[in-house]
Design brief:
The chain is an alpha/beta fold. It has 11 helices and 13 strands. The strands form 2 sheets. A 7-stranded parallel beta sheet has the order 1-7-6-5-2-3-4, with helices on one face. The chain has a 6-stranded parallel beta sheet with strand order 10-9-8-11-12-13, sandwiched between helices. It is elongated, with a radius of gyration of 22 Å. The termini are far apart. The model is unreliable at 1-7 and 367-373 (pLDDT under 50).
Length: 373
């Protein structure tokens, strides 16, 4: 009991210190607003760069194009990235482009140790990859000791030395919005590839194929269950409709361990196979790569699908303002949403989206996409 109380006290103290820090240091932005590609930072050819993205898995996946562009512009740089416990497991998505991955431990002592280590690293520039205010990111950016602090201009951008405009969520995808962070480095986001990627070895893919096993059908549809749950009845009805309307597809169902009972129930009701549990996100990603099409409310799966141009039907909580920030980027898809959440998305709308996407990407008589895939 004493240990739990101590932990609670430390967490309360951490929140108090964080809020106090932001209250004291919060001020209007007075740095340089960069709206065109220009070398605003005196970095040299081998800068030490710290990237902040300590939020969710999908947020790391959509940050890959920015990190890739920085690495190609500064091949001799030391590029480090700060993750949280929530998304540290997806660090392999960016490993080809970074030199070190830090993990933010959300405890008072963990934060102190991390900040000491970051200051010892003597970074030239810190880049906040988040497009909304984050107390943790602001704290790390300010206390890192870096000469330059780059971020997207928002209501708490007073700590940045350089900021870029916050583009309209209704018109610009999240990938394009955070790509504006390249401007102070002299990189024009419109002139670099912004497609998503997730690199896998042939060994990764071979293991995934072994785990999924052979299929008697030419195409595979992967269905993912997530906390944004559409409901058992909806999934069962939809999968039965797919099986009847397009028997070319073998349907496999999977998701997080906490949904194992729901997954088993949906599989039993439809005859679908269950996607094997993965020991890591990387192993899970390799299995996603083997599907020909995806149906999912999980944005991390949406972004994995976009990395490999896998046709995807995504189920979304559709904001009333029409924001499209988490849709599959530059990849074949249909997005189906409802302002009251994924659970309220009409079954008929999903079936119509699937039929339309399949007709576009898998015309009758066409062969399944193969190894070039």
């Amino acid at each position: 009991m004493a240990r739990r109380v101590s932990s609670a006290v430390l967490k309360s103290l951490e929140r108090y210190v964080r809020r106090g820090f932001l209250a004291v240091t919060d001020r209007p932005f007075s740095g340089e607003l960069v709206t065109t590609p220009q070398s605003s930072l005196a970095l040299g050819s081998s800068p030490r760069i710290l990237l902040l993205r300590q939020d969710r898995i999908g947020d790391v996946l959509v940050s890959v194009p920015v990190i890739r562009a920085l690495r190609r512009t500064y091949p001799q740089a030391q590029i480090h990235m700060l993750f949280s416990r929530k998304n540290y497991g997806v660090r392999q998505a960016v490993e080809p482009y970074i030199d070190q991955a830090w993990c933010y431990d959300r405890t008072a002592m963990g934060a102190v140790r991390l900040l000491r280590a970051l200051r010892r690293a003597r970074y030239d520039v810190v880049v906040d990859l988040m497009d909304n205010p984050s107390a943790n990111a602001q704290l790390v950016a300010r206390l890192s000791g870096a000469r330059y602090r780059v971020g997207i201009r928002h209501v708490r951008s007073g700590l940045y030395t350089h900021a870029v405009p916050l583009l309209d969520q209704r018109r610009f995808h999240i990938v394009e919005r955070i790509a504006q962070l390249l401007l102070p480095f002299g990189i024009d986001p419109s002139q670099v590839p912004l497609d998503l990627e997730y690199q896998l070895s042939e060994g990764d893919r071979r293991l995934a194929r072994e785990r999924l096993g052979p299929s008697e059908r030419p195409l595979r549809l992967g269905v993912n269950i997530s906390p944004r749950y559409w409901g058992r009845d909806n999934f069962v009805a939809c999968l039965r409709w797919i099986q009847n309307s397009d028997p070319r597809f073998e349907v496999l169902v999977g998701g997080a361990p906490e949904f194992s009972q729901e997954i088993a129930a949906i599989a039993a009701a439809t005859g679908a196979r269950v996607i094997p549990a993965a020991a890591s996100f990387h192993e899970f990603a390799a299995m996603v790569r083997e599907f020909d099409a995806l149906l999912t409310p999980d944005t991390s799966v949406v972004h994995l699908g976009a990395a490999w141009k896998i046709p995807t039907v995504g189920l979304f909580h559709q904001p009333l303002d029409g924001s499209t920030l988490w849709y599959p980027y530059r990849s074949p898809h249909r997005a189906v949403g409802h302002p009251d959440g994924v659970a309220e998305v009409p079954l008929g709308d999903v079936e119509q989206a699937i039929g339309s996407l399949f007709a576009e990407c898998f015309p009758r008589g066409a062969e399944a996409r193969i190894a070039a895939n």
